[in-house]
Amino acid sequence: MAQRSHEGVPLSPDAIAFVRSRDSFYLASASSEGEPYVQHRGGAPGFLVPLDAHTLGFADYAGNRKYDSLGHALANPRAMLFLMDYPARRRLKLWTDVRVVTGPVPPELHPLLATARGERVERLFVLGLRAWEWNCPKHIVPRYTAREWLTDRPALRLVHLEITDAEGYAAYRRAMEPLLRAHGGRFELDVEGTFHQCHAPFVPNRTIVISFPSRRAATAFFEDPDYVRARTTWFEPSVRRSVASWLAEDDGRVR
User: Would you say the pTM of this structure is higher than 0.85?
Assistant: First the structure.
């Protein structure tokens, strides 16, 4: 291992707090022959537990039954973790040695069981820290979870569409833009082909997310005669199916 900025150094309080706040990480491992593998691990915030400043761990549950990371850990204990905070563009890298624990759990590892939340734990992964390092944020693109995204978007409308007339939908979208702005709303997302169609022939589909400053503003938009006219003129003739739901209310809670 090349020299790292915190090789053989215990995790700082800031790094420990960062670990406790994560709801996912990337785990890189390799087989005894050096075949690499990267796995995404996710859970509730705090599922990766700092047991002390030199040791972390997490509970392992039934998954896709491939056991790649498990097999690697048993044959080659060296593993690396990437912990990401995309909104803040922070990345913590951890070089570790992995120990797999099955059977009776010693008391010092009971905090790992506390994260199970009723799920059946198959084994525990205990990670002995060898080195750690904060990484350059330059090329980290900010990304947000739904809850992070909704903090300043109190009313968010999610719509799935099956479109039969692309030109008609494009006309509807052009008519919507100035009307949305007039009510304080905006398109947050409008992407093609985001949900699977099992039937034939294939129907072009889109997912739209529209945000408003409040539900009152959203109501005013949907009741605006110009919106009703645009919907009747372009939307309804060009869309076979529309499934809409609210992601957030005025209190900012995910629905």
Answer: no
